[in-house]
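Q: Please design a sequence for this.
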């Protein structure tokens, strides 16, 4: 088994929704990012890559590469899932925490779990998506941005 963790932050900016776990969540702002700025998927990608000791999302999808401008982050996650399978591993389970005062994540968590599971070749039962505010403290508390943390456990495929 191998464990990995990931963390990502994006600042809020102009827009009317944020993409979280592949789901378009209505919000009074969007995020500033090269891709679609999906902090849930970026943190998950870094967790999977970390478990495999294969670097980080920026190594595989450089922000300097125009191909990734406005990209759907599910493309990144599917690539990480391929790398995981090539290395002989499958997802054991994943646990994600979003940190934001708003938007509320709870009503969208199940939809996120289903999309993430599809991309990772896993069951939604093995993927947790939860959220917390930071009690109005720090950059998330001031509503300046959104963060996500992810932990994954990978198991040998077929084991
Ligand atoms: N962006 C968020 C933040 C929180 N939640 C849900 O609200 C609960 C209470 O949050 P506290 O920070 O006050 O503990 C939290 O446990 C989540 O269920 C949310 O859905 N989206
Ligand atoms: C995802 C990438 C893609 O170019 O850009 P961003 O959308 O800005 O997101 P970030 O979390 O900063 O990760 C770096 C890049 O890999």
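A: Design:
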């Amino acid at each position: 088994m191998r464990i990995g963790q990931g963390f990502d932050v994006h600042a809020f900016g102009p827009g009317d929704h944020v993409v979280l776990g592949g789901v378009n969540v209505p919000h009074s702002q969007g995020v500033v990012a090269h891709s679609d700025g999906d902090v849930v998927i970026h943190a998950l990608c870094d967790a999977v890559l970390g478990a495999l000791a294969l670097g980080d999302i920026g190594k595989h999808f450089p922000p300097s590469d125009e191909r990734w401008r406005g990209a759907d982050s599910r493309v990144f996650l599917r690539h990480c899932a391929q790398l995981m399978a090539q290395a002989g591993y499958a997802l054991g389970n994943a646990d994600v925490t979003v940190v934001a005062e708003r938007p509320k994540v709870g009503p969208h968590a199940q939809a996120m779990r289903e999309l993430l599971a599809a991309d990772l070749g896993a069951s939604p039962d093995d993927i947790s998506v939860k959220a917390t505010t930071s009690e109005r403290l720090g950059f998330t508390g001031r509503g300046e941005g959104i963060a996500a943390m992810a932990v994954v456990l990978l198991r040998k495929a077929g084991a």
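Q: Thanks. Anything notable?
A: The chain has a mean pLDDT of 98. The pocket of CDI (ligand 2) is lined by residues 8, 33-35, 37, 42, 57-58, 61, 63, 68 (CB under 6 Å).
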